[in-house]
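Schema walkthrough. Field components (list of strings):
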Amino acid sequence: MDVSVDRRALPILPHRAYRRPRALTAGSVATSVALIAAGEFLVVVFLGRLADHYTRASAFLLPGGTRSSPRPFLGIQLRPLQIQIQPLDYRALLVWFLASVAIAGVLTGTHRIGAPGRYMVIYNLAMIAVSAAYMLFAGELGYGAEAFSELYLRSAVVIWLVIPVFLGGVSLFLPFTMLERVLLVGASFAYNVVFSAVRYALFAWILSWSGAVTMASLYLFFGPLLDFVYMVGVFSMFLVPLSRRLDREGPQDAWTWL
Amino acid sequence: MVVALTAWLVAIVIVMLVYAGRHWLLTLNRLLGHQRPYMQDIVDDDLPGVTVLVPMHNEEQVADGVLTALLGQHYPADRLEIIPIDDHSEDRTQVILESYAVRDPRIRPIYRRGEGARGKPAGLNEALEAARHEVVLVFDADYQPPPDAVRELALAFFDPEVGAVMGRVVPSNTTSGFLARLLDLERSGGYQVDQQARYSMNLVPQYGGTVGGFRRSVVLSWGGFDPYVLAEDTDLTFRLLVRGWRVAYANKVECYEEAPQTWDARFRQLRRWARGHTQTMFRHWRGVLTSPNMTPAQRVDGLLLLGIYTIPPLILAGLALSLSLFVTGTIPLAATILLSFFAVGYNAFGNFAPFYQVGTAGVLDGMRERLFLLPYLFFMFLFNSWAVTLGALDAVIDVVAGRVPTWEKTARFRT
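Field assembly_structure (string):
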């Protein structure tokens, strides 16, 4: 290659069909892996303290919120929120069941709401209806207030452990800078901790007036599932500047061919 | 009972882990591996004769566009014929075709009327009988091939092992609304990364039924397309592969299409694709396992490709199982979290690209701000899952009840 030519000044951008980012080298990948390992190590080391502050914050946000006694999980002590669930008699359960089925039926026939939104609402109504039906026959759900609170907290802890590996992994072979990698994992983690703590208190508050019929919907739709959505959202926020940068840099500096 | 349900949920998660691994490998290949270019070293004036087929049913909104684009192709006029297949149109399609046929002798329309099988495969069969050339290219009526598309795609057949070729589909109507923009992301992941990586890795690139073509004599040798298969493209891909032919993929041959603009049209399209693809899975899985003409890697990729429309029903089954295990108070934590990941990751069923694959494709394509839409793909996952599950169920019922599927075309939106 002619080194006397400033390759950044070449005016023709490699065609998108066969170009690949140039910045990836074995060294940069190894550094990224080390960074991910360091992030994971920090999470493991501070997991207990983080979980403690997290439940304190949720208890603070929940009116009259208190924490239960410590119980072990993955080598740390968790103190889940004490949740008061509204008891529901068979009449209330019937109302929940019939209302969910009726609203789902109406939504099935309407096209005023966009189809994806409609399907999500119907999915949640179906979970409420199934829960209400189960409670009508079995008396109560498999999870009580205490077990649900512990399940939620355990899920949060597992997701904290997953975040560095997951986001570090999906971004490993994209040409992010080291700072971007740290920010990507750090921002996702910080957002998760804050959002999840607020949501924990919110769930407890919702269950205090709705009863256990909404529990499945809260956990299975608005729980871990939603966590991954905003992780993807944070990921996309870092992809946009990356895409801009690769197109802005000199053609031969950013891309390689075939 | 609870143990059985938990085992089932874990089994679903394992299947999805296999698919996640497949897409991760494809993404890595596109980013790090040597890219296999498409026939770029062939420059030849002695081009083969080409017949272009354009299946049409009530296409008055788009017929002008595709015919004008095809007549503008940089291809020797004496070696190109264009056969629009008017399949029982009830609008002005026939009038438009007649006016083009009078103006240019390369256009030789077929008007299908009366009894007989309807739909794209049946129309293609009739046109194959009338075609004069060995290389047959197909463009759907809403496509607008760029001037060098026919030349580029025809070059693939200089390779004697190539039985079919596929170009890249790019939505042209991304300013029409949110859905078309999301579909643009999906298509990018499916072609820029998935198809190109499968071509580079000598796996199973797929002929997609449009922006592509095949050898006429080969298809006629097995009696043409089955008129009752809804995914004649996937069917052709696997018929070729088990017989030792290869499918070439041309990532540089980009052709614009009109993506569905309404959720209803998208739902019908997905359901039809799922029904056809599942039919094809039933037909070809044994052949893929036993064909002496496929490598072990092609067998694995072929089976995973055939089974890809089983993922949405599996996700829905997984969600139902999670609910069952939740109400009984026995939900397994790790499996539930993984299932959540897959529900988010596999939201782009149109071209089966998880978000990291779509994101990578978007970076390679220079999509910039369009990538902000990535998390919004999540909101399609129940919609997609339901459409695909119904389509797969349709295919099962077709087999069990001996029902004959009928073709349904995707709605057009151009004005």
